[in-house]
Amino acid sequence: MLKRTSFLLLALVLALSCATVSASAASAEGEIAIRLSNDGVTVDGKAASTDSGSAVYVGADIIYYEAGHGSAYGEGETADEHSAEEAARHTVVTITKPGTYRVSGTLSAGQLAVDLGDKASSDPTAVVVLILDGADITCTVAPAVIFYNVYEPYDAAADTKGVTDLSKAGAQVVLADGSVNKANGSHVARIYKEGTTKKLHKYDGAFYSKMSMNISGESAGTGKLYIEGDNEGLNSELHLTINGGHIEIKAQDDGINTNEDRISVTTINGGYLKVNAGLGAEGDGIDSNGYLTINGGTVVTQSNERSPDGGIDADMDISLNGGTVVALGTRNDATSSGSKQTFIELAFASTQAAGSVIKLTDANGKALLTHTADKAFQSVTFSSAELAPNTEYHVYINEIQQQYTGNSFGMMGGMGGPGARPDNNGQAPGEAPPTDGSGPAPGQMPPEGNGFPGTRPEGMPDFPEGFNPWQNEQTSDPNAVGSVAFVITDTVHSFSGISDSADASGKQRVTFSVNNGAGLTGSASGSKPELTSIKASADVPAQDIQVTVTDVPSENYSETRLLSELQSSLSDIMPKADGTYRLTVAVVSGNAEYAGVSQWQFTIGGLPFTDVNPADGAYAAIKALYDKGVMNGTGSASFSPNAPVSRAAAITVLGRLLGAETTESNRFPDIKPGTWYSGYVGWAVDNGIVQGDNTGKFRPDDNLTAAHMQLILDRYASLSGKEPATLNSAGNQLTRAELAVALASLL
Asked: What is the C-alpha to C-alpha distance for residues 619 and 623, in angstroms, rounded to an integer?
């Protein structure tokens, strides 16, 4: 009986094993093979059906922008139109059922379309896995590959904050190992719903999905996909993720585009991606209308060299968390400081020619980047696991060492050039100096955290001799020299005004002045700052002087001209929209005799700080206090919202806000009379707002805790009879932004 039972159990195990093998075999056999050919399409070896009810059929009408219609038809121009005869020459292969489809062969005039019906977007089973295994599709009137209706795992209005998982998305693309695939496609300009101006169709890319799309390599990741678009390249109307494979894109406009405003996420997790975009009049390498997140792989991308576009561009955060990224453009968008991998942003003072070799080395000469540019560029973003913070790097163009004059926190000495304000009580340009004599005396360096420029926060690393990233004051010295030591820190990633080092190149160094030596000032909202003259310290031809204006950080505005092109009206290059901008004047890199650059930062309306923006919760409070001259920045371009506040600074700012009458006091032995804060401490003592510690000292340089500041505010409210201001602090240590919010409530 025992033997029989054992036999039956063994038979059951074998049966289950066979069932498992059979199930696996069925799954593999479940792939549907689509073979493309100009002589006829086959499905699993048989001629493709023309019945639209089949899983795969041929014969659907292609959607394209038809010539001969008026303006009521859509927004297309002559270049977007195609004749009915041209469209009719295309064979459309349509997939209508969920499943896995392996596609191979060539269609010289055709399209591969996926459409599972209008209800597919909410059906988790409406998934198509498209395995491209030697597929070559050319379409001259529309995208070569397009997903119309499949499962969409995301709400199109839900903000993912830059993180998505598209493993369950209905549009799945797999590049078969060892395969070479090509999608040479066109686009469809906006077509209206009949009788309206609402969108019926609009497909900009050669490889396109109306739903979120997930692209992966097979197990070895050796499959290749070459996309070429007469408009854009690879597009998704919502999210897009690239996990692996080898993808190269050439496009007349954007190389990759995801186009749900402030929502779409373009994610790159692995593989190799090369984008050569902007082959026409304009175009970004990667353009996300929402977020761009790069977690791995190798990404090499470049934009149009004439328009103000970037190798990477996103309306929301750009997060570089892993992999290797080399992005070239006229103006790359700023990378988020929250990125998990070290990065460096280089803004050159003048355009670097196509064929230029950019090299970045460490202090020992080891090259971390050597890249030959296919196009002219002025901006480079580089990220690699080899880059490290608090480390010195050197930059070379065609083996000529480069120097810079600006960084994340504004300009180094010399940015003002001749004629800059020589002394303003230590205030950086654009800051409202105290009117009550509370500012530091000329040449005096105030203590840390007091809200005046020139301070160096606690914990910042040592820098090469002559380099101080927190020195933001303009200087009247026209011979101030930049630095060849590019030091990346946790807070400093961006370097501007990069040009040939005069010492290294043997060229004569040149400086510039503007407005007949008066310098450059900002302007009110809606008006352009005045720019009437640009002069060089040497006889440099106007055609060898480049003038560039970008916003800071780089997001929306970039204009560059040769001085010879601006002689009739220099103001043509200046912006009007509110924001903070940088004017760079430089000798072009190709000049054999001269080298030099000068920079000015200016503000139109708003705040001049690059580390706060209108979307921040504290922005309105910071602006209100800045406009009244109550709180200044820690530099010409930085407010340092998360920096701590010293006890002296907090009392000084409160006193300024209240218009306090300053008075000296001998109450505290550690308060020296005549310092920038002593009069405000005296006022606070006389009014019972501060009392000092249990040893009788005030400790002016100590950082103030949120609890102590709340006590000060409560005492003031009790004395004045006003409602107390409430601090909303995220931690024990009070930050400058939190102080601004609390004090603004007293206005």
From this structure: 6
- For the record, the structure tokens of 412 come out as 């180094």
Give the C-alpha separation, 299 to 369, whole Å: 13
Tell me whether strands 377-383 and 357-362 are parallel, antiparallel or unpaired: unpaired
Rounded to a whole number, what is the distance in angstroms from the first to the last CA of the chain? 94
Q: Which residues, listed in sequence order, are joined to residue 395 by a DSSP beta bridge?
A: 360
Rounded distance, CA 652 to CA 648, Å? 6
DSSP tag of 334: P
Q: How many CB atoms lie within 10 A of CB 21?
A: 10
Q: Which residues of 126-147 are buried (b: 16+ CB within 10 A; e: fewer)?
A: bbbbbbbbbbbbbbbbbbbbbb
Phi and psi torsions of 99, nearest 5°:
150, -175
d(CA 140, CA 89): 10
Asked if residues 276 and 376 have their Cβ atoms less than 8 Å apart, the reply is: no
Do you find a cis peptide bond into 553, omega within 30 degrees of 0? yes
**Please, are residues 243 and 215 in contact by the beta-carbon 8 Å criterion?**
yes
The C-alpha torsion from 265 through 77 and 329 to 405, rounded to 10°, is -110
Spatial separation of the C-alpha atoms in residues 598 and 419, rounded to whole Å: 12
Dist CA 322 CA 224 (whole Å): 22
List the structure tokens of 238: 């919502």
How many of the other CB atoms lie within 10 Å of CB of 450? Answer: 25
Over residues 60-94, the pLDDT tens digits come to 999 999 999 999 999 999 999 999 999 999 999 99
pLDDT tens-digit readout, 198-235? 999 999 999 999 999 999 999 999 999 999 999 999 99
388, two tokens: 């490290």
DSSP string, 382-418: EE-TT--TTEEEEEEETTEEEEBSEETTEE-TTSS-T
Sorted by sequence, the CB contacts under 8 Å of residue 283 that are 6+ apart come out as 232, 251, 252, 253, 254, 255, 277, 303, 304, 307, 309
Cα 723 off chain centre by:
42
